[in-house]
Design goal:
Strand order of the largest sheet: 3-4-5-6-7-8
Strand content: 15-25%
Number of strands: 8
Distance between the termini: 70 Å
Radius of gyration: 25 Å
């Protein structure tokens, strides 16, 4: 996709051109921009290069591209069916689908959860808490404390100070 393939817009006083879904245009009256109306917004330029959001006509169209378990698709669709929206996109990282209204996300679906609103999290059957990309907590096994030197012994029970 390039700027010549997509209509660009600007505010009445703005000096930059934007795609229609750009957050810079939210809540502002816009007009279609001419090719001579200034630079393209940095965020929009990234999207036009394929580095930003990927837009879809519907949630049903986005789900096969998203990568969530197929068994979760009906649940995702059901939980988001009542959300009023005018846009659907997948973020560049592929970590969630967003439903937007007026250029702003109003609901989200991850691969194992659904947020039909900012206040509500619905866990899908394969949800695992803390799966936000970090590592799972690991229990560190430590040795006892040496009573003489007040230092941690190795796991085999020896104190490094007692051995000298």
């Amino acid at each position: 996709m390039s700027a010549s393939d997509v209509p660009l817009f600007r505010t009445g006083t703005g000096g930059r051109r934007h795609i229609r879904g750009c957050s810079h245009l939210v809540g502002k009256p816009v007009i279609q921009a001419a090719d001579t109306d200034g630079e393209i917004c940095t965020l929009c330029e990234r999207e036009l290069r394929g580095e930003g959001r990927r837009y879809f006509a519907s949630l049903a169209e986005a789900l096969p591209e998203f990568g969530a378990a197929r068994s979760n698709w009906p649940l995702i669709e059901s939980h988001l069916s009542g959300v009023e929206h005018d846009q659907v996109w997948i973020v560049h990282s592929g970590s969630y689908i967003a439903l937007g209204r007026g250029g702003r996300a109003v609901a989200w679906a991850g691969k194992t959860y659904v947020n039909p609103s900012a206040e509500t999290l619905i866990e899908l059957p394969d949800y695992r808490p803390g799966g936000g990309g970090g590592t799972a907590g690991v229990e560190v096994v430590r040795g006892d404390i040496c009573e003489k030197h007040n230092m941690e012994k190795s796991r085999n029970g020896t104190c490094g100070m007692c051995d000298f």
